[in-house]
Design goal:
Helix content is 63%, strand content 7%. It has a two-stranded antiparallel sheet. It is mainly alpha-helical and 115 residues long. The mean pLDDT is 90. A hairpin with a 2-residue loop joins strand 1 and strand 2.
Length: 115
């Protein structure tokens, strides 16, 4: 949540989802990164990446596109619920208000468009 990595966020999240039954602690940590100015740009970039490459929303149906989620419906549903939660929306709005760079503002605007 707090630093750019060489690994694709969709791959990492899916791997965690296949190893862990409860993704809430990971998603909570990711959301909290938006409140820290030093972590906000990376957290936003990673969320945008997930929404661009690993998430689809078609006519009120939201889904994660990585094939490895197929046998982990409960974990995939946790991510989808988190992505559509009012808590995450509030966190993102607050991050937008607190953002101190044009790049981060643009990334957060992109996230809003993708959600």
């Amino acid at each position: 949540a707090s630093g750019p990595g060489e690994e694709d966020v969709d791959t990492v999240l899916c791997a965690i989802g296949n190893a862990e039954d409860d993704l809430k602690p990971y998603l909570t940590e990711w959301a909290s990164a938006f409140t820290r100015s030093s972590d906000r740009p990376a957290a936003a970039a990673q969320l945008r990446s997930l929404l661009e490459s690993g998430y689809r929303s078609d006519r009120n149906k939201r889904r994660l596109t990585n094939a490895f989620w197929r046998d982990r419906d409960r974990q995939a549903e946790q991510v989808i619920i988190w992505l559509s939660s009012a808590d995450l929306q509030s966190t993102l709005f607050a991050a937008f208000d607190a953002a101190d760079s044009e790049e981060t503002l643009q990334t957060l605007a992109d996230i809003d468009d993708l959600m």
